[in-house]
């Protein structure tokens, strides 16, 4: 009998953890952690962001209504805490994505920090961006091209003017920085059982739910957000 109770308790706990992990706030937290830990840009979570914005707007209206109606301050503060948490996660998620594709400075023509040229040339990666991100990155690239043209290329001697016809995003990739997919990352299984085929190993890595391992990013990149989350 005790054994049955134990099994039932375990099953209920698994159901509870699954329910908690699928709330939008938890999904947004997971998306933020995955994006922050991944060396390359991941697929933009459009539907999740849309739901989060709608929920934030709803809670903002609720807080304003409670404050205007003289609701108990403790209740209002609890709603405000949830609102602040959701806003922080959403801003952090969007910010870490922009930091991967643009400059971490006041002007995107200064000191490019990450991989916007590499992403823009790669159809698969470019399609992972949201429409506002695509517009922003394209504007940064145009500003960079204009900056290079005005400060460098236009001042070259006549016999080097052919260089002006070459775009800063040319077909040559040797000077375009790329994300390092051979880096090790810490990952956690989000499923009851996950099998990962490792490089130079005949035996796969087998992980149960919540197991944490260090593996090469390129080995699990297609499993992120599906069977694996980064930590």
Automatic annotation (TrEMBL):
Entry superkingdom: Eukaryota
Protein name: Uncharacterized protein
Originating organism: Pistacia integerrima
């Amino acid at each position: 009998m005790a054994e049955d109770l134990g099994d039932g308790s375990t099953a209920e706990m698994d159901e509870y953890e699954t329910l908690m992990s699928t709330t939008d706030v938890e999904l947004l937290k997971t998306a933020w952690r995955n994006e922050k830990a991944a060396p390359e840009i991941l697929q933009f979570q459009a539907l999740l962001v849309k739901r989060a914005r709608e929920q934030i707007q709803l809670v903002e209206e609720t807080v304003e209504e409670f404050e205007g109606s003289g609701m108990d301050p403790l209740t209002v503060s609890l709603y405000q805490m949830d609102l602040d948490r959701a806003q922080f996660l959403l801003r952090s998620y969007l910010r870490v994505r922009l930091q991967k594709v643009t400059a971490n400075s006041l002007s995107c023509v200064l000191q490019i920090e990450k991989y916007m040229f590499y992403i823009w040339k790669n159809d698969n990666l470019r399609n992972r961006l949201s429409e506002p991100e695509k517009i922003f990155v394209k504007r940064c690239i145009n500003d960079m091209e204009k900056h290079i043209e005005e400060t460098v290329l236009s001042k070259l001697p006549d016999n080097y003017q052919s260089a002006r016809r070459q775009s800063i995003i040319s077909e040559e990739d040797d000077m375009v920085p790329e994300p390092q997919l051979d880096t090790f990352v810490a990952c956690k299984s989000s499923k009851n059982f996950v099998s990962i085929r490792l490089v130079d190993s005949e035996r796969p890595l087998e992980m149960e739910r919540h197991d944490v391992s260090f593996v090469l990013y390129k080995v699990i990149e297609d499993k992120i957000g599906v069977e694996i989350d980064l930590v």
